[in-house]
């Protein structure tokens, strides 16, 4: 019996052992499950608890004009938020805050008298103003410092500047194109925290973010202002839809002004439509019209097949090309090449084009930079449209000679005219001359960059002479400067309609020119889209050219040539003006 | 007495090296872990990082003394003391509610304030209850298979102790006590049928207590999906799981636990095993489980080998108490069981627990030193072999 009992107990104790063995087996299995299989999931979950990532946004670089005047800056701002439930005496608090901010008390009371846990009282206000509110010592307010991009000149060169989004990254214009330079580098660091929110193992001070680099533009605020004023006047006076104007230094390709009307205020870019936001002098193309004739003339002279005094029969104003009839505004019997440019005869241009051949015309236009990006430092640049001569129909070839049937950007056109003013050497147009770091030290600079010798210096000079005649004797009389010699070419182009063909009554009036003729300092283009009072380039854009050029030359301290026997002109012994 | 005290029982002077090694290794590991787990908390609350480990070390020294003493007290001496001990324990359990004597911490009144030190009667109650049960079962030895004699009276006493424990409230200890009772009755030969009946009758009671208390219910639910309530009831478990997971196989290194930094609410007591799992990884967990396995295995072997029924029951009860507490605590920290407030024996911070557990180990070693004829013969043979070997050398 006893022996039996002992045996039974021994068996049962073995079962108890088994029970414990199983229990421990489960524990080990669970340990393997947690520590091996779920290791990464659980440790990541834990990391999320005690690792806090912090980052400090860098200060965005400043954009300066050529004279180191600020065009875009970053300001320290403060936003004030409130947790209404934590504020004792809401009405009193609201009154005090409103007084400090100089706001209407009623609105502040309304904002604080709110069921929501969190309300904004003031966003992006100056630190000094925020300090006044802080000094009130009201509990339940939160002050969040941040940085805000600010364009002190408001609409000035708005489309060139572009703007930044809420994340501080550039979205358009130079802000977008040079975002890598301007943005700087975040400083990121991690802080390990215990459950009480205290940090540990982080006795190092937080690293400072690397501020963004500054841009120094070729753009000049004064020239930009002159250009914008003249452009706005030209568009408004002629009831145009919009306008573009550019001022370029032919010898360096430096863009002194890049204006687009209607203006855009980057401080409030959301108010502007997309047409108003993008930099259309670079992104949009148009059919240049008669301004092309100067390049056609350059092609003709360079080819050696035509000279300036060669005459062409101009069909008395009506000329059939294929199934279409081309007309001149004023009918002419015969015109020299010079006369064709001066009086802007379409039929003459067709005749010259036929003389030199499609290939020559195409190659010259291509060499002037049409149909290819100029490589300017603006985002979204368009190529323009210049199809290969093999694809041209008879009417295409004819139209291209007087500037229809191919498309350019205003920047391409002014750069090409710049090449004529620079002894036939095309320069890459550029907006940014240097990148400096936040302490003003040079990071990189962009030197003038020749693209190619398009035509010989003598050809270029001959074309310039014709352009001078346009202003003195031809269609550009309204563009003639006072005190300076000038030359240019008018353009009145029909607009392509959305349905194909040309839109009735819709024109692009333009004027492109250089001044002064002795040694051109600036090349200027003015383009007015859909002017209604007058449609002719000379009438619509010419006066703006005159205004921009005169004022800019004065600003640039270019000596005016008051008259032929002016007292200012110094004479050499031979009597020639220097 | 049952007259089992025959001359076949021989006392061998031994400290049961395997058992002692297991216990000492656990206690040593415990001291390291108590320091690691508690230093941040100690520094924050008491301004000294060694506040807890210092105390634990003193209790360890006391525990060693107590172990030596109990190892030398013949376990049979407890036989007549079972009832007096039980009485005193019940009294102490009641006294925690006495104003001025009781000490409340963490929402539970578990401590008796003795002026220089506070004492947790429920820790002692476990061992004393085991003694009583061993005594009573020995007395009713041959009638154990009868429900009214073998099961009911023990359940009655267990119920009284449980009721006192629940009044603290100490749900974990009550469950542990019931489970130990079950194991002892099972080992003592109670009919499986009766035990099943017992379990069935306990279930509604347990359900009543669980459902009756909001926090216990929530803790119970938290076992199923601790992540769904990671902010309240599941908080401890979630952070405990994170600790184990972060530890991986090799651990983050001793002292490098993140979860002990106030994420785990009881890093040095209830959740010390999680900190160990984080710092020592799977290897550390395996070592601890193996050490407990060693202790339990030795304890149950002792229970089987001792040629004395009371000793056998006593050894079974002590081992079951230690083993169940250890396994339950480990399971809780791993999210396998709802949180109960049970500590990890030998490792967790807690003076009373450490001293009482070491005393229990002393008793166990004492029981182990009584060998039956077969073992005696084996020992003698071994000794003879050893002397022979020595002689040859």
In short:
Chain A is built from 20 helices and 21 strands. Chain A is of the alpha+beta class. Chain B has 393 residues and is mostly helical.
Fold and architecture overview:
The complex is a heterodimer of chains A (578) and B (393). With 578 residues, chain A is α+β, with helices and mostly antiparallel strands. In chain A, 36% of the residues lie in helices and 22% in strands. Chain A contains 20 helices and 21 strands. In chain A, strands 2, 3, 4, 5, 8, 16 and 17 form a seven-stranded mixed β-sheet that branches. In chain A, strands 10-9-21-20-19 form a five-stranded antiparallel β-sheet, sandwiched between helices. In chain A, strands 1-6-7 form a three-stranded antiparallel β-sheet. In chain A, strand 9 and strand 10 (255-261) form a beta hairpin. In chain A, helix 12 crosses helix 15 (358-367) and helix 14 (346-356) crosses helix 16 (394-401). In chain A, 48% of the residues are buried. Chain B is mainly alpha-helical. Chain B has a domain at 14-72 and 244-306 and 322-393. Chain B has a three-stranded antiparallel β-sheet, covered by helices on one side. In chain B, strand 2 (102-105) and strand 3 (108-113) form a beta hairpin. In chain B, helix 4 runs antiparallel to helix 11 (309-333), helix 7 crosses helix 8 (214-224) and helix 11 runs antiparallel to helix 12. Chain B is globular and about 60 Å long. Mean pLDDT of chain B is 83; it is low at 1-7. The chains are: A alpha+beta (578), B mainly alpha (393). The A-B interface holds A 1, 5, 8-10, 12-17, 19-21, 23-24, 26-28, 30-32, 34-36, 38-43, 45-46, 49-50, 192, 194-196, 200 and B 40, 141-142, 183, 186-189, 238-239, 241-249, 258-259, 261-263, 277, 281-282, 285-286, 289, 292-293, 296-297, 300, 303-304, 312, 316, 320, 323, 327, 330-331, 334-336.
């Amino acid at each position: 019996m006893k022996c039996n009992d002992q045996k039974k107990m021994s068996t049962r104790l073995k079962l108890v052992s088994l029970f414990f063995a199983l229990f421990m087996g489960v524990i080990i299995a669970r340990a393997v499950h947690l520590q091996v299989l779920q290791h990464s999931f659980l440790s990541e979950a834990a990391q999320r608890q005690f690792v806090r990532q912090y980052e400090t946004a860098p200060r965005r670089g400043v954009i300066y004009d050529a004279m180191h005047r600020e065009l875009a800056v970053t300001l320290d701002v403060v936003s004030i938020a409130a947790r209404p439930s934590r504020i004792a005496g809401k009405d009193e608090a609201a009154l005090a805050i409103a007084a400090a901010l100089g706001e209407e008390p009623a609105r502040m009371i309304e904002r604080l008298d709110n069921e929501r846990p969190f309300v904004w009282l003031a966003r992006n206000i100056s630190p000094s103003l925020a300090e006044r509110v802080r000094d009130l010592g009201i509990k339940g307010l939160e002050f969040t410092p941040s940085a805000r991009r600010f364009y002190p000149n408001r609409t000035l060169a708005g489309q060139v500047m572009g703007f930044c989004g809420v994340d501080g990254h550039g979205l358009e214009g130079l802000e977008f194109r040079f975002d890598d330079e301007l943005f700087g580098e975040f400083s990121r660091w991690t802080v390990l925290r215990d459950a009480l929110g205290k940090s540990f193992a982080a006795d190092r001070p937080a690293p400072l973010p690397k501020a963004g680099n500054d841009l120094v533009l070729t753009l000049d605020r004064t020239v930009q202002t002159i250009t914008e004023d003249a452009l706005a006047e030209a568009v408004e006076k002629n009831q145009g839809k919009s306008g573009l104007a550019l001022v370029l230094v032919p010898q360096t390709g430096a863009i002194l002004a890049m204006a687009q009307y209607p203006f855009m205020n980057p401080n409030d870019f959301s108010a502007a439509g997309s047409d108003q936001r993008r930099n259309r002098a670079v992104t949009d193309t148009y059919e240049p019209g008669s301004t092309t004739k100067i390049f056609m003339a350059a092609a003709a002279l360079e080819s050696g097949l035509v000279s300036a005094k060669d005459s062409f029969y101009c069909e008395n104003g009506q000329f059939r090309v294929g199934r279409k009839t081309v007309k001149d505004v004023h009918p002419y019997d015969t015109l020299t090449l010079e006369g064709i440019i001066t009086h802007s005869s379409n039929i003459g241009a067709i005749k010259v084009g036929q003389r030199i051949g499609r290939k020559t015309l195409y190659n010259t236009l291509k060499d002037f930079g049409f149909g290819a990006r100029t490589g300017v430092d603006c985002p979204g640049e368009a190529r323009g449209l210049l199809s290969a001569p093999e694809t041209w129909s008879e009417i295409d070839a004819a139209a291209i000679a007087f500037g229809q049937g191919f498309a350019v950007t205003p920047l391409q056109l002014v750069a090409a005219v710049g090449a004529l003013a620079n002894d036939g050497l095309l320069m890459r147009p550029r907006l940014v001359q240097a990148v400096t770091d936040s302490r003003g030290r040079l990071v990189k600079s962009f030197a003038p960059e020749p693209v190619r010798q398009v035509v010989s210096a003598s050809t270029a000079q001959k074309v310039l002479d014709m352009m001078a005649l346009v202003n003195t004797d031809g269609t550009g009389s309204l563009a003639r400067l006072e005190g300076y010699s000038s030359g240019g070419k008018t353009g009145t182009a029909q607009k392509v309609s959305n349905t194909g063909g040309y839109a009735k009554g819709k024109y692009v009036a333009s004027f492109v020119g250089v001044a002064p003729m002795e040694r051109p300092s600036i090349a200027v283009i003015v383009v007015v889209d859909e002017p209604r009072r007058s449609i002719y380039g000379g009438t619509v854009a010419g006066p703006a050219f005159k205004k921009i050029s005169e004022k800019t030359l004065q600003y640039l301290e270019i000596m005016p040539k008051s008259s032929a026997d002016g007292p200012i002109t110094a004479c050499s012994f031979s009597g020639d003006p220097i | 007495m049952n007259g089992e005290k025959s001359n076949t029982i021989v006392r061998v002077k031994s400290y049961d090296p395997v058992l002692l090694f297991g216990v000492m290794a656990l206690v040593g590991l415990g001291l390291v872990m108590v320091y690691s787990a508690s230093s941040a908390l100690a520094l924050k609350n008491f301004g000294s990082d060694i506040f807890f480990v210092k105390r634990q070390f003193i209790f360890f020294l006391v525990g060693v003394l107590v172990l030596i003493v109990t190892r030398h007290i013949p376990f049979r001496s407890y036989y007549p003391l079972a009832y007096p001990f039980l009485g005193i324990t019940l009294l102490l359990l009641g006294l925690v509610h006495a104003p001025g004597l009781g000490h409340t911490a963490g929402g539970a009144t578990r401590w008796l304030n003795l002026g220089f030190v506070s004492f947790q009667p429920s820790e002692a109650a476990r061992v004393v209850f085991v003694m009583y049960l061993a005594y009573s079962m020995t007395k009713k030895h041959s009638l154990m298979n009868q429900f009214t004699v073998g099961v009911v009276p023990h359940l009655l006493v267990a119920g009284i102790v449980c009721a006192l424990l629940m009044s603290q409230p100490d749900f974990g200890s009550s469950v542990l006590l019931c489970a130990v009772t079950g194991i002892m009755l099972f080992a003592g030969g109670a009919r499986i049928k009766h035990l099943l009946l017992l379990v069935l009758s306990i279930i509604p009671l347990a359900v009543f207590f669980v459902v009756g208390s909001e926090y216990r219910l929530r803790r119970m639910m938290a076992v199923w999906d601790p992540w769904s309530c990671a902010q309240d009831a599941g908080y401890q478990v979630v952070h405990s799981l994170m600790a184990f997971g972060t530890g991986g196989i090799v651990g983050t290194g001793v002292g490098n636990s993140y979860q002990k930094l106030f994420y785990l609410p009881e890093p040095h007591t209830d959740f010390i095993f999680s900190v160990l799992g984080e710092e020592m990884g799977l290897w550390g967990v395996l070592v601890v489980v193996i050490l407990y396995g060693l202790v339990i295995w030795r304890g149950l072997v002792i229970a089987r080998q001792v040629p004395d029924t009371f000793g056998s029951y006593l050894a079974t009860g002590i081992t079951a108490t230690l083993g169940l507490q250890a396994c339950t605590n480990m399971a809780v920290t791993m999210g396998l069981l709802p949180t109960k407030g049970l500590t990890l024996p030998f490792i967790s911070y807690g003076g009373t627990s450490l001293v009482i557990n070491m005393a229990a180990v002393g008793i166990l070693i004492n029981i182990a030193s009584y060998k039956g004829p077969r073992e005696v013969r084996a020992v003698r043979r071994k000794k003879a072999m050893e002397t022979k070997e020595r002689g040859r050398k």
